[in-house]
Specification:
The complex is a heterodimer of chains A (191) and B (198). Chain A has 191 residues and is mainly alpha-helical. Chain A contains eight helices and no strands. In chain A, helix 1 runs parallel beside helix 6, helix 2 crosses helix 3 and helix 4 crosses helix 5. The radius of gyration of chain A is 36 Å and the shape is elongated. Chain A starts with 10 loop residues before the first helix and ends with a helix. Chain B is globular and about 50 Å long. Classes of the chains: A mainly alpha (191), B mainly alpha (198). Chains A and B meet through helix 1, helix 6 and helix 7 of A and helix 3, helix 4, helix 7, helix 8 and helix 10 of B.
């Protein structure tokens, strides 16, 4: 299903595009791509991106399937299809143009990028601080898995042993009761 | 990228099941354990504050999952199954409401922690890292259970929505929607935390 790039690109579309990029995992790349054009630290980086055909093309290509690239979802189409690629470029350009013009959307970008960055650094810190288990720990763990311990075997057989014991109990009780009834019968009626 | 050259979960599980208990399949077990260790620890750690308890529970989750491998009907959904076992163990652990840790244990943990801190990079840097990590794990713990694994796999393993969908046995659209909601919630959590942190 081809979707046309909306002619009027407002805050709603821009935020939808940003959310989409975030969910697909490309927000950081796209925003840093925009910012990298602004090497002098001046304003207008987004509009540079919007007017720089090659930069937009490279950005979309970098995010698309192919050697060293990734896949984009529904809103920004992959580069394998030239039409979709052009559509992605158009969307990205419109987003960049809008971001350059709209201060509240730029704040939205900052907010999203901050959360994305916080998650990335937090998980990276966790990754660095968490060690894989050592060899002897793994060996102990695997020993527990492979060698079935006696306790587990007992636990598995416990239910059937319990059933057998109850059956024996009922059987003996029944035998005892019937013996008592027989004795009582004898005592009462066979005199 | 590396996953293409590595053996898939299904191949490793098939090796384990074919070999049975008698033969040596430690490599297959170790590969699975190393592949998902950090994901399991992260998920448990988001609910259990003690790192040592989290690692113990992660170990227990692996033991239970490996023991019950013959009962797993769809081996390609191993990760989802393992994470469910880990989440249940964490829930049980919290339900048991253990008494506070003994002084001996606290002292032991502090000594271990201190040794690790001194051996590494600057204390300030590590403090900041620790703080960022705690913030993310606490926020993760506030998410509904079905969102946690998706966020962890995205940010810790760097997997795409399609890969996460494949591992958890959910449609890609569902994963995308859940991730969207999870990220929105995380954004709220971080924004509420920020004023109190400054």
């Amino acid at each position: 299903m081809k979707r046309k790039t909306p002619e009027s690109y407002g805050c709603d579309e821009a935020r939808q595009g940003l959310q989409h990029l975030w969910v697909e995992g490309y927000l950081g790349n796209v925003i840093s791509g925009f910012r990298s054009l602004d090497s002098g630290g001046r304003e207008g980086a987004y509009v540079d991106m919007a007017t720089d055909e090659t930069a937009v093309d490279d950005e979309v290509r970098a995010l698309s399937p192919g050697p060293g690239g990734k896949e984009l979802g529904a809103a920004f189409r992959p580069a394998t299809d030239p039409e979709f690629h052009a559509e992605s470029c158009a969307r990205l350009r419109k987003l960049a143009e809008h971001l350059d013009a709209c201060q509240s959307c730029r704040r939205e970008v900052e907010s999203l990028v901050n959360v994305d960055q916080a998650l990335m650094t937090g998980f990276a810190a966790f990754d660095r601080s968490t060690e894989l288990p050592e060899r002897d720990q793994i060996a102990t763990l695997l020993h527990r898995v492979v060698d079935e311990p006696t306790v587990r075997l007992l636990r598995r057989t416990r239910r059937s042993i319990r059933v057998i014991l109850w059956l024996c109990f009922f059987l003996f009780t029944l035998l005892g009761c019937s013996a008592l009834i027989a004795l009582a019968w004898k005592a009462l009626f066979e005199r | 990228m590396a996953r293409r050259t590595e053996k898939q979960d299904t191949e490793l599980i098939a090796e384990i099941l074919v070999a049975g208990r008698k033969q040596d399949v430690n490599d297959a077990y170790t590969t699975l354990l190393e592949r998902y260790w950090k994901v399991v620890v992260a998920l448990v750690r988001s609910r259990v504050s003690s790192p040592r308890d989290a690692e113990d529970l992660a170990q227990e989750a692996f033991v239970r999952a490996f023991r019950s491998l013959p009962n797993l009907k769809k081996p390609k959904l191993f990760l989802g199954w393992l994470l469910r076992i880990a989440q249940n163990l964490a829930t049980d652990h919290l339900r048991r409401r253990r008494p506070p840790a003994s002084l001996d244990r606290l002292e032991e943990e502090a000594v271990e922690g201190g040794a690790a801190w001194c051996s590494g990079r600057g204390v300030q840097e590590r403090l900041e890292q620790q703080e960022e990590m705690e913030m993310v794990l606490n926020a993760l713990g506030e998410l509904p259970e079905r969102y946690r694994a998706i966020v962890t796999l995205r940010y810790l393993k760097g997997l795409s929505n399609r890969e996460v969908a494949g591992l958890l046995g959910e449609p890609e659209g569902t994963i995308r929607n859940r991730l969207f909601r999870a990220l929105a919630k995380l954004r709220n959590i971080f924004e509420n935390q920020r004023p109190s942190r400054t």
